Automatic annotation (TrEMBL):
Metal-binding listed as a keyword: yes
UniProt keywords, alphabetically: Hydrolase, Iron, Metal-binding
InterPro entries named in the record: Calcineurin-like_PHP, CNP_phosphodiesterase-III, Metallo-depent_PP-like, Pesterase_cyn
Entry GO MF terms: hydrolase activity; metal ion binding
Annotated family: Belongs to the cyclic nucleotide phosphodiesterase class-III family.
Protein name: Metallophosphoesterase
Residue stretches making up the Calcineurin-like phosphoesterase domain: 5-222
Amino acid sequence: MIPNFRFAVVSDLHIALPHTIWNHPSRFHLVEVSVSAFESVLEHLTQLDLDFLLLPGDLTQHGEPENHAWLAQRLAKLPFPTYVVPGNHDVPVLRANEQSIAFADFPYYYRKFGYKDPEKPYYTCQILPGVRLIGLNSNLFNDQGEQIGRLDIKQLGWLEEVLASTGDELVIVMIHHNVVEHLPNQSRHPMANRYMLENAGELLPLLRRYGVRLVFTGHLHIQDVAYSQGIYDITTGSLVSYPHPYRVLEFRHDHYGRQWLQMLSYRVESVPNFPNLQHSSRKWMGDRSFPFIVRFLTLPPLSLPLEQAQELAPTLRDFWANVANGDALFDCSHFPPEVGHYFEKYGAIATCGTPTLIDNHSTLLVSG
């Protein structure tokens, strides 16, 4: 019998010690709050009697050794086990350079947090009786040395061997890149496709074959729950960008033998130098949104003329903040019909056309 348990998810921490912070005036991320926001979260989580904590990647600003070392030391002091996987920012280069660790170095920093065999960039472990975690690495480098989001053949083969041996265990998968689309046509959109796992089409049938229902991802920096043919992809927003969220989840059984996952989402409301973080961060994102929105409007599928895009962009300054917040509903009646209908697709609307507000607080049926 799988026990009831409670855990938390905090994603895309982008930990940046003050002397390592990059000063890019146009960046969306408030890495200035990375350490203080994480400390605020930990202060809450240590009061909750958690069974474990999941961190699905982008643990550091850009793979800096000092930031990895600081985080590993901080996690070692927590009263509950923590498990991590690498994000694209954690291992941005195959070989170490003056700024970032090498790809192969990552597991050695996190041997206490899943990587008992640091020779492999992926792992599995039984985290509770009857509960198995699989931590996947979705960072690959092509022949030109460019980083891509993909599982290689060796890892897929290893994964099938692990899944074939799980029996009646509840399997939880953690991976940085999204495996189910969270945005309209995400896998083919020119701005959103890089957040998808390139070969999700190979991974998903494998997970379905062995009854895996729960996948936790990051990377996209939004609060969203996506569902596809039996699999929930639960992605959690970034701790360093609006709305600075994290999740607390409870797995439980009911009297009929069904299994449920109850999910609550929280926000970091205040940190030193940002007493009203939610307001400041939303404004920060909106103030930097104009180039992003113009590009979004001029690319397919809308492909608007530049002049029209520049005219519409100011009215959409909070569009991405609303998406990131989760459970967004958009009234686009004041836009040209084609544009309005497209933006409404980014709202929390089910395929049947009704609002479905499950991104932040929900109870999901896992089995039964």
